[in-house]
């Protein structure tokens, strides 16, 4: 039984009525930022499709299926039984417990779900089984269509070594490197020395930043080999590695391709994906500010050459590294729907999920290359990690959640709602926030507004970082590379640093809000960061006058105390604010000064878990002597491994964790003497 005693089918129906009407309204309001599903009722595809995925991408596929009149089946783990995608589908089947290996990667359970529901086709989304040739083979053996390329293309492009050889043969530019599997640590060091540092160590079967390390010397090669092989085995079940020359300070630009089973293939322009953290994309845009029409054409033609070389049929993405002179080199091909596909849909008007479904049924492409436009500009911000030095993953429950769909030309692809849990078991992405404009400036301005109007409470998130990126002068000018974040924030992102006038405006607004709630005049103290700011607030009509930090600020607006968003006029300028500040009366502030301050914990002698996760390895035992910087243990969270090290030389006093153990943020792992 579902929550409140409702049967699952009725619960899904009520959810669909509520959620479906909301989506219809949003699509009507923001049609310019949406893909166009031009469904031909006479073109029969499938009666029922199972989506072998979860979260936002499962919801994305379900939306197109509904427009095409196709019934949908969701699969879910036991902890996802109330997830949005499970409620949104016509049917939902539990395929196992929370760990992905026992649920979303559990082929036997998913095959059972296909048989039980009579699904005729499977859309794998991205990640999980989307590039697993064995899964595609099992579907084919039972006469179930795989909405993606055939097994030959998956295998050929999924293996980094084989794909590079095929790319070379197809006359696609490739990065210099070793064209084979690196078997041992010492072999890795030898090959790296021969290629010349820096080098990139990466998983042969990898993708999404998993199993990738940059190495600048022999020691980093040894460490990178170990971590890359462990992450590759954990994420892909394949620990084979390759090594190639690392192109320093490049751009990461990819080409979207679309091909059918009749030999037709198109390139749907590029996506600029250079803003990255740990090889994972943060902000993407289409088109790129860097490419001229000739370079775009050459990259597109090479991408199509590669697709045709493996008889590719479906939507896929060919990724390139591009240097400062516009030389471009093949990086990899993702044989699936890409996370950032919405920005391509915005500038072309094509529904890529619909195209994948049509191709899987055997239809030819409707379009020719000359039909593919670049209409306007689209930007995507991935909303997820907090900004603890660019983000250790965050988990928790969304206590308040409000997407900025009141704005025009805004699209939000999400699979969560207020009350949803962000779990340690899955990718921590909350949503993909997409804005569209006739020009890049218009799309950027809309993104700034959308980020300001996005309400997320209960978990930490990266919206402050995203806003800093899209308003940074370097980003606005297009002066970016894959090193943008470490160059702009070498010590990690610490949050927006307020200038004096903006700090006064924020403090004054908080004070005005407080007075509105209290309905009286006061002398107040507002805490911002580590500082306390005394102020005097007076009200005349609808305007609050606040004396703070030697300046005067006038604040007015409609004070809806029930809303998390406050549109205010501050010194004549319009602002959209969200408040999470502490406001004290003058007396409370005076009394608070007598409270004893909490003494910070001495972290030099203890190691606590910086995030929830699973202990992968413990490298020390009581009595061992460790050096500063020496690895103590490795913790895995959201499919990424993190090495935790000693901050000083000391003897290990006690160890409080063991491999395979699940730990929470702040749990004590190791004590040093």
TrEMBL record:
Pathway: Metabolic intermediate metabolism; propanoyl-CoA degradation; succinyl-CoA from propanoyl-CoA: step 1/3. Residues 598-673 form the Lipoyl-binding domain. GO terms for cellular component: mitochondrial matrix. One of its GO terms (biological process) is lipid catabolic process. It holds the Pfam family Biotin_lipoyl. Its EC number is 6.4.1.3. The holoenzyme is a dodecamer composed of 6 PCCA/alpha subunits and 6 PCCB/beta subunits. Interacts (via the biotin carboxylation domain) with SIRT4. Interacts with SIRT3 and SIRT5. This is Propionyl-CoA carboxylase alpha chain, mitochondrial.
